[in-house]
Amino acid sequence: MIQRVIVVAAVLLLVQLALLANTFFGNRGEGEYRPGEPLLQFPAEAVDRVEISDDQGGRLVLTRGPAGWRMPNHFDAPADTAQVRALLDKLAALAGGQAVAATAEAAGRFKVATDDFRRHLLLSAGENELANLYVGTSPGFRQAHARLAAEAEIVTVALTTFDLETAMEQWLDKEQLKLAEEELVAVVAADFSLRRQEEKWHLAGLAGEERQNDEAVADLLLRIGGLTPQKVLDPAMAAPLFAAPADLHYTLVFADGRRREYRFVRLPEEEAFALQLSDRDLIYQVHRLPVEGLQKLNRQGLLAASGQADPGAGPVAGTGSEEQGGLLEAVPPQPAAPVGIAGGAEK
User: Residue 326: what pLDDT?
Assistant: First the structure.
């Protein structure tokens, strides 16, 4: 008799727990999310708009167009396409664990409420919304609580707020200023000009015993081709800086006949320079060290020290000023790009 009472009580307890779970977690229909299955269920290749908002008022928009991914609310700056694709692939495969709660109070506590969240993610394809997700507090290493906007359940996912940064510089294409030496035929600065002839670079205007320092020339070309933007500056704020003479100015002549002028101005109270290019309307911020390195590589810095002359680097006919003029006259000048919202000129 006692055993029968225990069995009945146990059954009643299980029924009560089932009813409680149904009330707490809700009644989901057939085919909806289950633990371990993809949480968002969208085709990554279909996404053409990503919008991320944070709890500090930050907002990042990424849109996909013919030229790749860009940031329209950050002067249409180019985004790192590989980084965006990696995020979309990760989100498409994102699986959630067991629900940890499903109440409005818990949504606020775990920071996944509609009006109280750490991150809010929207994915779209044209006018169609593909995913709407709130990401909140972290229960463990590289994990976060998350909630689909249309659902009450709060689950744990392998995602962090660092994956969903809203700062423009975190998504900027850092390779957009990179150049290969083979793309160039000349570099013209205030006091020197370099020209590539038969796969070798020659410093113009060498006189007497002067010889160029090939290592310094290679360093110059490496620094020019390796510039990395830290971020894109507000043109309305940065453009006035270029009303004064630039701290560093040089011109590149490309093998296809294009010409690009670089103007650097030191940013007040920053360990950086502003960079303006003649064929783009974006103004970049670059770290001071590569620019200061370029400033040291003037004509004197490109000459070999006495006793270190390079016998293979003979002089190029003409003085430095004559060579500069000839190189620049050979390519029609390009008008400086207007300062404003970027239209997306590529390198």
Answer: 56
The predicted structure's pLDDT at residue 2: 53
User: Which residues of the chain fall below pLDDT 70?
Assistant: 1-34, 306-347
Question: Pairing relation of β-strands 68-71 and 49-54?
Answer: unpaired
Under the phi-then-psi rule, with left for phi > 0, alpha for psi from -120 to 50, and beta for the rest, what region is 339?
Answer: beta
Answering whether pTM is above 0.85, one says no
HEC-encoded secondary structure of 202-236: EEECCCCCCCECHHHHHHHHHHHHCCCEEEEECHH
Residue 29 identity (one-letter amino acid):
G
Tell whether the torsion through CA atoms of 56, 58, 59 and 60 is positive or negative: negative
Angle at 161 between CA 155 and CA 162, to 5 degrees: 140
d(CA 139, CA 126): 34
CA atoms of 120 and 133, how far apart (whole Å): 6
* Amino acid occupying residue 319: T
SS3 8: helix
- The whole-angstrom separation of Cα 59 and Cα 297 is 41
Domains of the chain: 34-170 (no CATH), 181-329 (2.60.40)
Smallest CA-to-CA distance from 312 within 222, 220, 213, 216 is with: 213
Are residues 187 and 220 in contact, defined by beta-carbon separation less than 8 angstroms? yes
Give 162: exposed, middle or buried? Use CB within 10 Å, 0-12, 13-18, 19+. Answer: exposed
Of 190, 212, 216, 210, the closest CA to residue 202 belongs to 212
**Residue 284 forms beta bridges with which residues?**
232, 275
pLDDT of residue 320: 45
Q: Which helix (H) or strand (E) holds 34?
A: none
